[in-house]
Amino acid sequence: MLSSGLTLIFSMMGVLNFAHASFYMVGAYVAYTLVGIVGFWLALLFAPLAVGLLGAAFERLALRRVHKFGHVPELLITFGLSYVILELVQLIWGRTAVPFTPPSALQGSAFTIVSHPVEGMSLMLGKAAPEICAAASCSNFPLTKAFMMVVALLMLVALWLLLTRTRVGLVIQASLTHPHMAEALGHNVPRVLMLVFGSGCALAGLAGVVGGITFVTEPNMAAFIGAIIFVVVVVGGIGSLAGAFVGSIVVGLLQTLPLAVDGSLATLLSGWGLAVTQSTPGYPLLRLTMAEVAPILPYLLMVLILIFRPKGLLGTRED
After folding, report:
1. pLDDT tens per residue, range 31-68
2. Prediction pTM value
3. What number of other Cβ atoms are within 10 A of residue 161's Cβ?
4. Which helix (H) or strand (E) element contains residue 95?
5. Coil, helix or strand for 141?
6. Cα 278 to Cα 287: distance, rounded to the nearest angstrom
7. DSSP 173-238
8. Is 126 within 8 Å of 196 (Cβ atoms)?
9. Sheet with 137-142, edge to edge strand ranges
10. Can you say whether the dihedral through the CA atoms of 21, 26, 32, 38 is positive or negative?
11. Distance between CA atoms of 219 and 241, rounded to whole angstroms?
12. Is 15 left (phi over 0), alpha (psi -120 to 50) or beta?
């Protein structure tokens, strides 16, 4: 959800927004405040709009002034904005986590995975009776995460249709590739770019609302997820919406699947009949399990992508 908004801004404007995760955090906190006034479902609508307006105002008042000086000033001003947002959030809502709980409709589990201990079978049930879970191993999939998956897919499809099947998307792409021609046809190119930046921030705000009820809403939530967003964008291909989707899936699998593997290279070598002891060269690295190295695997993949395919998995090559 976050990488789609970041990809939209970069592909349309060429701006790598370092404050994107901060707008995600603002979306969560604004929704937390609105929930007590208008309820969750209206907050899900109004919070992204508020974040989008903040993003559009920032582009109009600050980012546009440095756009003509190149990418480095743009990176610096968005980097500085992330610190300003962090301090403002701590001043307004405090330094501790806030109790942003999901609504009653999103509480509970979407389905239950039941693994029979004897037959080794796994079944996915809508609801598992307590007596079934008493005789087998049950794992509940939270309804909030299922809601997150649905919203992310709807966001991706809607964004793709907007950019490729509507006149608005055509104007946006024309404003990027042929700005003078777009202006000659009567389109306000600076306003179009402001709307693009605001829309990307609104997508981050929407992700913040959904992420706020799923995870913990606290001032470090932007730093926690900010770095991995850029990994997703680089792996998928900077500027590619389809690449953002594929990169999200790949990075998500790299972050989760190794956690279930308790083996290491030492275990693998021992299985091949090679003795691995503390005197073996590189033993501290060989003994690390997949679960222990899982957090760094996405970053290792990003390094390999930058070495062997700098444009990413689905990025377009520029001649």
Report:
1. 999 998 999 999 999 999 999 999 999 999 999 899 88
2. 0.86
3. 11
4. none
5. strand
6. 9
7. HHHHH-HHHHHHTT--HHHHHHHHHHHHHHHHHHHHHHHHHHS-BSTTHHHHHHHHHHHHHHHH-T
8. no
9. 122-125, 109-115, 137-142
10. negative
11. 28
12. beta
